[in-house]
Design brief:
The structure holds 2 protein chains of 2 kinds. Chain A is an alpha/beta fold. Chain A has a single domain, classed as 3-Layer(aba) Sandwich (Rossmann fold), CATH 3.40.50. Chain A contains 8 helices and 6 strands, in the order αβαβαβααβαβαβα. In chain A, strands 2-1-3-4-6-5 form a 6-stranded parallel sheet, sandwiched between helices. In chain A, helix 1 packs across helix 2, helix 1 packs parallel to helix 7 and helix 3 packs parallel to helix 5. The longest helix of chain A is centred in the last third of the chain and has 18 residues. The radius of gyration of chain A is 15 Å and the shape is globular. By secondary structure, chain B is of the alpha/beta class. Chain B has one domain: 3-Layer(aba) Sandwich (Rossmann fold), CATH 3.40.50. In chain B, the strands form 2 sheets. Chain B has a 6-stranded parallel sheet, sandwiched between helices. A two-stranded antiparallel ribbon of chain B has the order 5-6. In chain B, strand 1, helix 2 and strand 2 form a beta-alpha-beta unit. The termini of chain B are far apart. The chains are: A alpha/beta, B alpha/beta.
Chain lengths: 172, 206
């Protein structure tokens, strides 16, 4: 499977350096290594969700308890979690760092991923959620640290979109 | 079904003294207003929106502070909006979480009830859906339904003193609270709650 192990490790290391102790997730192809790394790390609590919206609640609870967390999901997971993002994170001013694998862009071969990818940024913008793309491994650590800093200082959700160039290695 | 005599407020009174050291997360509406009416404490958080996520918030707290007892006070309407959350709770199985569900078979606090106990928008528990059965089948090690105050008090106190993920469904009257008034802004509550949880931990370790 040409999901980049090396770049998944770069993202995971950045999560660790941001002092994250809890990861909530649902899998999708690009996230398999990241979730496995969280699972294999005895210092990390991995919460396997049934549906992404739960993760917004889990992250809020962790924040109340003084623990930093991230949510791992893909475009449709983000779209699924909207009510929780609005009704918990935005309404109650709670930091929430979302790492969204950004399917459905240029290079996408799966027809079923194309719609969710198209609507992710407009929805983030409509909710005034700050977001940046992650496409190169050398920018991951600094951008993730900055995203966490903004989430914590602004008490709001912040999203990083994990792009194809970062997460996927085209088979040669 | 229906015709329960048990009242939420009496259940809350029965457990209130035990909640002092707990992290308590309630849903909005009647449950929040009635717990508040017994005397607010900074370790009580009232989730005024996002129906279904009270138990998810409780899970996040329970996993992050394993030495603290977490009490989620939920309702049938909210639980039915996040049935998958029961499976997440069950598989995470925090030993310090007690999930209390007041089941009045009605979407009371979002307008499904009326004064006098009249119910015009019932939930599926009114036609037989068994939330304790669902929790049990989801993998909760302990889940039961109670219909009498003594049974609720005994089960809840047992769960609060125990060390196992527990779910107690109390079949209660679909009665409006005496007042929905809470003289506490949700943001004030939002900021005092983590302070209470984190100060207590720091204090305990000193």
């Amino acid at each position: 499977m040409p999901v980049s192990v090396a770049n998944s490790q770069v993202v995971y290391d950045a999560i660790k350096h941001a002092d994250v102790k809890l990861v909530s997730a649902l899998p999708e192809t690009w996230l398999v290594h990241l979730i496995r790394m969280a699972d294999e790390d005895p210092e990390m609590t991995l919460v396997r969700l049934a549906k992404e919206e739960e993760g917004v609640g889990v992250s809020a609870g962790a924040h109340f308890a003084g623990v930093r967390s991230v949510m791992l999901m893909q475009n449709h997971g983000f779209l699924q979690a909207i009510n929780g993002i609005v009704g918990v994170s935005l309404l109650y001013k709670i930091p929430l760092l979302m790492l969204i694998t950004d399917r459905g862009g240029f290079g996408e071969k799966d027809p079923w991923q194309t719609e969710g990818g198209k609507h992710t940024r407009p929805v983030l913008d409509a909710l005034h959620i700050a977001h940046e793309d992650l496409t190169r491994p050398d920018e991951v650590e600094l951008r993730l640290a900055k995203a966490m800093a903004l989430a914590q200082s602004s008490l709001s959700p912040v999203a990083l979109l994990l792009g194809r160039d970062l997460m996927w290695e085209e088979p040669s | 079904m229906g015709g329960a005599e048990l009242k939420r407020i009496d259940c809350l009174k029965a457990i209130y003294p035990e909640l002092e050291e707990c992290a308590v997360v309630t849903i909005m509406g009647a449950v929040a207003a009635e717990l508040y009416s017994l005397g607010h404490r900074p370790n009580f958080f009232y989730l005024e929106h996002a129906m279904g996520l009270a138990s998810s918030i409780g899970l996040g707290i329970a996993l992050s502070q394993p030495s603290r007892k977490v009490v989620v006070i939920d309702g049938d309407g909210s639980v039915l909006m996040n049935l998958g959350g029961l499976t997440t709770l069950a598989r995470s199985r925090p030993r310090n979480l007690v999930h209390l569900i007041f089941d009045n078979e009605t979407l009371l606090s979002v307008g499904g009830g009326a004064p006098g106990g009249y119910r015009w928008f019932t939930t599926a528990t009114s036609t037989g859906t068994d939330l304790a059965g669902i929790a049990s089948a989801a993998g909760f090690p302990r889940a039961r339904t109670v219909r009498e105050l003594e049974d609720f008090a005994a089960a809840a106190l047992d769960a609060l003193k125990g060390h196992e993920l527990s779910c107690i469904v109390a079949k209660v009257d679909a009665e409006m609270p005496k007042s929905f008034l809470m003289d506490l802004h949700m943001l004030e509550n939002r900021f005092e709650f983590p302070r209470a949880l984190q100060l207590a931990i720091k204090g305990r370790s000193e």
